[in-house]
Design brief:
The chain has 217 residues and is mainly beta. The chain has strands at residues 5-10, 26-40, 45-59, 64-79, 87-105, 109-127, 133-135, 144-156, 165-174, 186-190, 195-198, 210-213.
Length: 217
């Protein structure tokens, strides 16, 4: 069963129709969580994958950008059986990345040119009856990453098809998905609205996204 969550908000409050480009400074927030449970037939085991990510992104009036993201990804496996056939494994990665760079306008919208100023990452692997041991981080972020941001309209699902609401957002997509490392490669930044996105299933096949209004963090 999937239980993903993505929450984004901006601190600015103005008429979105008049905001082809953001009047800096602006501060955006992003939170993303995902979880999936996979059960093996005949009760022979199960796997749980979980993912949490949070981002704070600042656009300054001098066209500079600072984005700080941190998160945790975990993968736990339990194999049931008798004797040597029973074991479990746990893999956990925790990271924090600070990107700095510039933002510019383009005909499409915005371009974020970022470089990984600092990156801290730890990853471990544990098996039954043994202590966790450090391993290499599986998805290191690239030294540089470029995002193209375009204006988008998101239809909020409020459970009432007769009174749906559309809100404006920036949809920022990395030129190369792998460049963001463990972080999502698409950042949806709500304009004057906190947007909750469900159904993403990061890294494990993806699902149909749904959007909901939520209080700002």
């Amino acid at each position: 069963m999937l239980a993903p969550l993505l929450v984004l908000a901006t601190s600015a409050h103005a008429d979105p129709a008049r905001r082809a480009t953001p009047p800096a400074p602006e501060h955006f927030f992003l939170q993303h969580a995902d979880s999936v449970n996979i059960h093996i037939g005949d009760q022979e085991g199960a796997e749980n994958r979980s993912y949490e990510f949070a981002l704070a992104l600042d656009l300054a009036s001098d066209n500079t950008v600072v984005a700080t993201g941190h998160g945790t990804a975990a993968d736990s496996n339990l194999y049931a059986g008798s004797g040597a056939r029973s074991w479990e494994t746990d893999d956990t990665t925790t990271w924090k990345t600070v990107w700095t760079g510039t933002w510019t306008t383009s005909r499409a919208g915005l371009v974020l040119s970022l470089a990984a100023a600092t990156r801290d990452c730890t990853s471990s692997h544990r098996e039954s009856g043994r202590a966790a041991t450090p391993v290499a981080c599986p998805k290191p972020a690239a030294a540089k990453v470029a995002f193209t941001c375009t204006r988008d309209q998101v239809t909020l699902d409020n459970g009432d098809v007769q009174h749906v609401k559309q809100v404006d957002a920036w949809r920022c997509t990395a030129a190369t998905a792998a460049d963001t490392g463990e972080a999502p490669s698409t950042w949806l930044l709500g304009i004057d609205t906190c947007i909750q996105v469900t159904g993403i299933d990061v890294g494990w096949g993806g699902g149909k996204a749904e959007y909901h209004a939520c209080p700002p963090p």
